[in-house]
């Protein structure tokens, strides 16, 4: 079956692919747009899973945590390993001394993977916080404008020298 330019354009619009890939997939599926979309989405999904990208790597890195507990089982420190590594880079001897102190005092040091941390959750929390700050600042500016319009009519702030 002959594949038309309209079919290729429609497939490209629905699935972000090149003209060449859209044409090959349509020809393979005898011009069936739905089969072509499904095939390209499956192919694209498997590529995304293999790649992982920055978000996947960041999720894995942020999920690693360092926990230090004293003899009684009380948590002294529970931070992402990334923070420990950054502190290690900035003040090498401080981290070494603190870890040695933890070992000498029989503290239990664990490195574990926390499933609850996710870059997308962090992004969502940051966005919500920014939105709340925007709303509050708009309220403050609105209140200031109202006060300015109220006090502009009054002459209390005028100094008259005769």
Walk me through what this model shows:
By secondary structure, the chain is mainly alpha-helical. It has 7 helices and 3 strands, in the order ααααββααβα. The protein folds into 3 domains: 5-51, Helicase, Ruva Protein, domain 3 (Orthogonal Bundle), CATH 1.10.8; 56-113, no CATH class; 118-152. The chain has a 3-stranded antiparallel β-sheet with strand order 2-1-3. Strand 1 (64-69) and strand 2 form a beta hairpin.
Helical segment count: 7
- Oligomeric state of the chains in view: single chain
Strand order of the largest sheet: 2-1-3
Spatial extent as radius of gyration: 30 Å
Return the structural class: mainly alpha
Topology (elements, then pairings):
Layout: H1 5-14, H2 19-28, H3 33-51, H4 53-63, E1 64-69, E2 75-80, H5 81-90, H6 92-104, E3 108-113, H7 119-152
Observed structural traits:
Helicase, Ruva Protein, domain 3, 66% helix, 3-stranded antiparallel sheet, 3 domains, 162 residues, 3 strands, 7 helices, mainly alpha
Write a brief caption for the model:
By secondary structure, the protein is mainly alpha-helical. The protein contains seven helices and three strands.
């Amino acid at each position: 079956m002959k594949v038309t330019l309209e079919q290729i354009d429609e497939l490209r619009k629905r699935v972000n692919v090149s003209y060449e890939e859209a044409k090959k997939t349509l020809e393979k599926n005898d011009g069936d747009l739905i089969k072509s979309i499904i095939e390209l989405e499956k192919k694209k999904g498997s590529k995304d899973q293999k790649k992982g990208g920055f978000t996947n790597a960041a999720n894995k890195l942020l999920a690693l945590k360092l926990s230090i507990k004293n003899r009684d089982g009380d948590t002294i420190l529970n931070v992402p390993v990334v923070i420990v590594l950054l502190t290690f880079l900035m003040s090498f001897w401080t981290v070494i001394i603190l870890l040695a102190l933890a070992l000498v005092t029989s503290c239990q040091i664990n490195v574990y993977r926390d499933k609850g941390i996710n870059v997308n959750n962090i992004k969502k929390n940051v966005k919500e916080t920014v939105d709340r700050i925007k709303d509050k600042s708009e309220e403050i500016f609105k209140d200031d404008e109202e006060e300015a319009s109220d006090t502009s009519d009054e002459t209390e702030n005028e100094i008259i020298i005769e």
